[in-house]
Amino acid sequence: MIKIVFHTFLVFMLTLYVGCNAELPDEDVTEEQIEQFLREHMEILDRLDLEAYMNNFSEDATWQNAVGMHLEGKSDIEEFLARIFPTLENAGWEVHNIIIQLVTPEVAVADVEVDLRNQILPEGFIEGMDETVIPERNLLNTYILKRDNGEWSIAAEKIRDKLDLDALVD
Questions:
Q1: Burial of 58 by CB count in 10 Å (0-12 exposed, 13-18 middle, 19+ buried)?
Q2: What does the angle CA 22 – CA 146 – CA 88 come to, to the nearest 5 degrees?
Q3: Tens digits of per-residue pLDDT, 101-133?
């Protein structure tokens, strides 16, 4: 009985010691790495390099656009974005703010405020509409990021738009 109590106490103390002395990544460095990852992600988008852009997503990623379309899995996201990228050929991006919250050393949530200018929706892109130029969209992209083997990837992305997209269709 004394051996069991001592063993339990020893395991508890070892767990406490390891927990208190575990080397966690420096939060500032980790946040800087995440910000760099997201800025590079937006630069890839600006170059319209779909393959490189999709390399930032995990295989089981989810994605939701500003009008509520929800996609699951990297291949479905890529198929949809292959239609969207041509609408961005004359567009410009400006990142205003990146807010990062570390949930654990391996998971983070980030909000990225972005202005998108001059997106051109071709005729029929939205059913019944002629070619439409959207001069400016103010977007808030929320990302859930996960780190595996030191590399960050996008597990989920949700895009919200301050522009009333329904007004374009009405």
A1: middle
A2: 150
A3: 999 999 999 999 999 998 888 777 767 778 888
Q: Is residue 6 part of a domain?
A: no
Please report whether residue 14 resides in a domain.
no
Count of structural domains within the chain: 1
Residue with tokens 């895009």: 159
pTM passes above 0.85: no
Let me know if residue 126 belongs to a domain: yes
Q: Is residue 77 part of a domain?
A: yes
- Specify the residue for token string 């509409």: 129
Q: What is the pLDDT of residue 165?
A: 54
